[in-house]
């Protein structure tokens, strides 16, 4: 008891001394003492948008790519068909640097698209649905909200300093950029600054009537607008005759498909072993021996050459009228991206498999179509 009394006296003295200070806030929420909750409210950040099948998040002015498990800068560059040295240099890394799952790499330039559709996205997702494989990845979330600011880390900066500079939480900065638990950043690294969450406004409240006044009764429809007068008998008879007349034929809708739609050549000679099934198989499987030459179905340009995460080679040709052809289960590629090819030109060989076959797709823009409509 003798030891407790001095402690109580000191505690009471300290409380009196603090309450005597004019700027002390007992609940620690005033702006002066640094514990204001206003800054915390401003630091509420939105979630990072989902990436597409390649791991890319696209904004109006730039793109970033999200690393997967086991990725290096080299493997990311190969998946995107980019130069690994350029990608590494742009992110202050080396091509063999191992990346954490979810880590962000900034792309030196925006990747090519075909009528607004990333052709390499189509290429990589093409084989995922085919042949009873995994379902296609979910499409990327729309990124039509605010575009995040980019910050290139300077020497001596820390993640906490950068978060404070842009008034965002360090946790949000780490989540958006896939930083390590130690929040390490490197000189030259490009960071996306999280955007603020769009908080929903409170719903409008219906007006409340005064007690005892009752609820207002809406006027009946006929009070302001009288019922229309009935039509004369002659007008009714004319309308009935018009309704009974058969519709004129819509000749424009009965036109046959143009001949150009059936002008594609078979990419390999063989029987169809897997039919087109929208939603499950966006193309057809054509049986062919390993090493069989794969031909361009039509003249066009090599729009993309890439691989799936399981190492399946895929090639995409871009043709006139926004048409794409996709060739998968191939190897020994004979063309490079950007090259012009002619109809019937050898572009690759069928890869070995059990069974060996060519997966072939035709796409009209983003939508897959039955290849048999195009093949002779």
* Helical content band: 10-25%
Beta fraction of the residues? 15-25%
Tell me, rounded to a whole number, the average pLDDT.
75
If you compute it from the alpha carbons, what radius of gyration comes out, rounded to the nearest whole angstrom?
Answer: 33 Å
The structure class reads alpha+beta
Give, in order, the helices and strands.
HHEEHHEHEHHEHHEEEEEEEEEE
The major sheet is characterized as:
10 strands, antiparallel
**Assembly form of the protein:** single chain
Number of helices: 9
Low-confidence stretches: 1-42, 134-142, 221-225, 251-261
What distance separates the N and C termini?
102 Å
How many DSSP E strands? 15
Structural description of this entry:
The chain contains 9 helices and 15 strands. It has 376 residues and is an alpha+beta fold. Among the domains are: 137 residues, no CATH class; 113 residues, Glucose Permease (Domain IIA) (Distorted Sandwich), CATH 2.70.70.10. The strands form 3 sheets. Strands 6, 7, 8, 9, 10, 11, 12, 13, 14 and 15 form a 10-stranded antiparallel beta sheet that branches. Strands 1-2-3 form a 3-stranded antiparallel beta sheet, with no helix packed on it. Strands 4-5 form a two-stranded antiparallel sheet. β10 and β11 form a beta hairpin. The longest helix has 17 residues. The chain is flat, with a radius of gyration of 33 Å. The termini are far apart. This is Peptidoglycan DD-metalloendopeptidase family protein.
């Amino acid at each position: 008891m003798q030891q407790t009394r001095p402690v109580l006296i000191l505690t009471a003295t300290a409380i009196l001394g603090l309450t005597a200070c004019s700027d002390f806030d007992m609940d620690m929420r005033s702006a002066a003492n640094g514990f204001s909750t206003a800054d915390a409210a401003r630091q509420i950040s939105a979630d990072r948008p989902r990436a597409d099948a390649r791991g890319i998040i696209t904004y109006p002015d730039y793109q970033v790519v999200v690393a997967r498990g086991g990725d290096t800068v080299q493997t990311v560059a190969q998946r995107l068909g980019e130069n690994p040295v350029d990608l590494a240099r742009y992110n202050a890394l080396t091509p063999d640097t191992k990346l954490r799952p979810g880590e962000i790499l900034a792309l030196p330039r925006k990747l090519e698209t075909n009528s607004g559709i990333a052709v390499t996205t189509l290429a990589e997702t093409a084989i995922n649905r085919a042949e009873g494989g995994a379902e296609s990845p979910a499409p990327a979330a729309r990124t039509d909200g605010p575009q995040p600011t980019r910050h290139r880390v300077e020497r001596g900066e820390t993640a906490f300093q950068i978060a404070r500079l842009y008034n965002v939480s360090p946790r949000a900065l780490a989540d958006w950029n896939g930083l390590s638990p130690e929040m390490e950043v490197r000189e030259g690294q490009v960071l996306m600054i999280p955007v603020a969450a769009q908080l929903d406004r409170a719903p409008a409240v219906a007006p409340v009537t005064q007690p005892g006044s009752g609820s207002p009764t809406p006027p009946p429809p006929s009070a302001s607008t009288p019922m229309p007068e009935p039509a004369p008998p002659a007008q009714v008879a004319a309308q009935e005759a018009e309704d009974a007349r058969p519709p004129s034929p819509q000749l424009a809708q009965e036109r046959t498909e143009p001949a150009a739609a059936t002008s594609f050549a078979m990419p390999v000679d063989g029987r169809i072993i897997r039919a087109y099934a929208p939603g499950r198989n966006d193309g057809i499987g054509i049986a062919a021996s390993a090493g069989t030459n794969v031909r361009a179905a039509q003249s066009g340009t090599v729009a993309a050459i890439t691989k799936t995460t399981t190492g399946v080679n895929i090639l995409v040709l871009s043709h006139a009228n926004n048409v794409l052809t996709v060739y998968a289960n191939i190897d020994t590629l004979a063309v490079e991206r950007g090259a012009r090819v002619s109809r019937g030109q050898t572009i690759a060989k069928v890869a070995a498999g059990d069974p060996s076959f060519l997966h072939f797709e035709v796409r009209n823009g983003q939508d897959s179509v039955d290849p048999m409509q195009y093949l002779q």
